[in-house]
Amino acid sequence: MQIEQEIQKTGLKLIAGVDEAGRGAWAGPVVAAAVVLPVLDKTHGINDSKQLTPAQREKLFKKIHGLALAVGVGIADVAEINRMGVGQASFVAMQRAVDNLEIKPEHILVDGYRVNFIQAPASGIIDGDAKSLSIAAASIVAKVTRDKIMTEAHNKYPRFGFAIHKGYGTVLHRERIAKHGTCAWHRKNFAPIRQIITGSKVQVALHG
Questions:
Q1: Is 77 part of any known ligand binding site?
Q2: Which E.C. number(s) belong to this protein (predicted)?
Q3: What confidence tens digit (pLDDT) does each residue in 70-81 have?
Q4: pTM of the predicted model, to two decimals?
């Protein structure tokens, strides 16, 4: 994870990493995070959130907030996802995360290849959460924040099991939708949701 160090050699110091969680889910919001880290001499265990256990993510979530110069979170809710599509909603959430930083970054690293939606100097990094420490930190903050939101949603709609699958397309989630229909937290424009409701056979994308 040397990308930040290479950019810092050019004289830029305030570098934000941006990532999102929930883009592929069937229910719930897209949550994005932006993290500005100081120059660190070690990773402190920060890694791509997908490579960590829930307990590890929770621990690092607290550590990141202690280490970071700034942390911003942005959310695009289900109504926005249904209206503009999950791709555009993800961009909106990421821009909101950047806007919510308490300091203005000099450069932004975004997980992926699209950066034209960011209103600041930015670079897209494919598999950025495995190559950039600040993007990895952002992936953890986004994932933990979204998981907490989905656990709260479970309290309101326990029949769907949101606390278990966090809104992703698991077998359990598919079965619950087939039995109970949908609720306000479901992305009703998603093809898998429509197919389940109409009784069509779908291929379930296990948690991703």
A1: no
A2: 3.1.26.4
A3: 999 999 999 999
A4: 0.90
